[in-house]
Protein: non-specific serine/threonine protein kinase
Amino acid sequence: MNQPPAQPDLRPGLPKAATGIEGFDAVTFGGLPAGRPSLVCGAAGCGKTLFATTFLVNGVTRYGEPGVFMSFEERAEDLSANVASLGYDLDGLIGQGKLAIDHVRIERSEIEETGAYDLEGLFIRLGFAVDSVGAKRIVLDTIETLFSGFSDASVLRAELRRLFGWIKERGLTAIITGERGEGQLTRQGLEEYVSDCVVLLDNRVEDQITTRRLRVVKYRGSAHGTNEYPFLIDAEGISVLPVTSADLDYPAGEGVVATGIDGLDAMLGPGGFHRGSGILVSGEAGTGKTMICASMVDAACARGERCLSFVFEESGEQIIRNARSIGVDLARHVAAGLLRFEAARPSLYGLEMHLARMQRDLDRFGPDLVVVDPLSALRGPDAELQTTILRMADLLKARGITAVFTSLREDGGLGRDGDIGVSSLMDAWIRLLNVEANGERSRTLYVIKARGMSHSNQVREFAMSREGLRLVDAYIGPSGVLTGTARAVREAEEAAEVLRRRQENRRRQRETERRRRSLERRIEELRAGLEAVAEEEAILLDEEERREAALASERRDLAARRGAGR
Structure:
């Protein structure tokens, strides 16, 4: 695995001229050696001329150093037309007197080598061009054509040294391009020895996929990165990206990132994922991985965060259209400049190039949230795939970016045999499953892990509708987990059973109330009977007392009459 180049020595050292080529100046700790010749070599189509042209254009536009481009193959008008698509206006720079392009036509058939043949005429022509614009930088493209008229190796070596010496005497920072030779860096095998810096460009094809790589073979008087680095040539120019594995010294992110899915946030202790986390969403096709990502992107953009989505199976427009079906409008975030899609087929570039493009886009867009959908689409040798995934995770973590990766494999594995696991690299893992029962398919979700936070270990069924993604508690009973219609039927059965029990309870309550009222009526009747008996008894007692009183009165009257008679 590549390691990042050591930090440069900060003590005074070799003066350098920045190329302005993104990444290359970082690899060389400042650029090419100032006032010295550098060799850029490689096979046809690897980008030598573009590299040299970018060096000159950036010298004029960024560093105020005029330049001279001396071509031995392409005409000036052809060169201008070739680089115009990259935004380089060579004709405009020539009109401003900041750049000179000279095409030197050399035909071997027209050269008759003699003992007096040398490059004196070239020095005069080159010196005039340098003086005409006050050049500080020059390019000679390509040197093999220049020396095609030499057959004597000793004369060739002497003239080559003389040319390089002339460049140093004039204090010019020079790039000399050369074609790759058989078993050596150049065809002549001499340029690399007299150059102070040698840069090798390679356009490598593996499994029908092209990857451009750059390596600094030597750099006299200066430290430099010694690894191979992928570099890009596209509409934005040339950029060398020193993608290496980062040290595990990045800080832990602070804060919580809500997913925008209420049910999922509720399953996580803090109410979302830790900022800067790596989140894996795995599941087979159709489980809803992309829509979960769309919901998370929508929530992030609503908070004013920038989101970058790398997609390998769908276009950005297609994802925007599909997200509308769940009530998510991603188009407004794209229009606001908060969301950007980078769509490419996995077979378009090699793994290194995909990773290099990602780093460049991260540096230029500065996202807070990144989606890679799906990670399992990347193809390549298992060892290279493992390295790429490690670098990708480190690349995002080192920048504190919250990353969401999707994988078509339920176990989170990659590679042909599934032996490349990425779940251990992730801070959180959401697993999606399709559950088939009763002739239907239902989606379920559960959180396998979430480092540094408590989380639910329950399975949730989730539904997608125009109201968004909604998580539903799955039914868990003696027969297992029920989802979809089976869950609805079971819930209906349970509701009916609850209703039956309630109705039975109410019936028993009514029967009890009826019996209570019946008993109360009987008690009232008995109480009324007792009162009637008591009342009758009182009447009888009163009548008896009256009879006794009457008898007593009669006896008193009788006794009174008897006494009066005597």
Remarks:
- The chain has three domains: 16-240, 256-482, 484-539.
- The longest helix spans residues 484-565.
- DSSP finds 15 helices and 26 strands in the chain.
